[in-house]
């Protein structure tokens, strides 16, 4: 009898995890300046925008902009507004290759970490002059709005209810 209960509990837990919705993770959809772009002046703000909203928990999100010597050229706190992270730059007329490193936490709890580069020169070629067929379609937005916290909560509630049912049945004997 005890083995049947254990098997039933294991099967129930397996089914709970089996029917949990799949979670698609967010992706970077744009940045300013754009990845691998060549621009004439250093921007006053760096922004990275994702396909889904981000959450701000402590210092979970970050942007760091480094020059060719590895020195930080961004300043202040990272701002989170919906799906966009932004950070101010140190004013100046610096040129060269810059590396943007970012870390963002999506609403589903997934952490996105990556980097890209851009170049500042005094004789920049605009990307619109190079690009003959610009992309006009918007990226697909995930329909999944469930967060990892919701999934964990439901799993804990169902598991707790199953344990209570087994205790109640055992006491009923």
Automatic annotation (TrEMBL):
Membrane-spanning residues where?
Answer: 146-168
* Signal peptide region: none
Q: What is its main location?
A: other
Name of the protein: Unannotated protein
- Specify the CopC domain's residue ranges: 25-120
| Pfam families per the UniProt record, alphabetical | CopC (PF04234)
Which key words tag this protein in UniProt? Copper, Membrane, Metal-binding, Signal, Transmembrane, Transmembrane helix
The yes or no answer to whether the keyword Membrane is present is yes
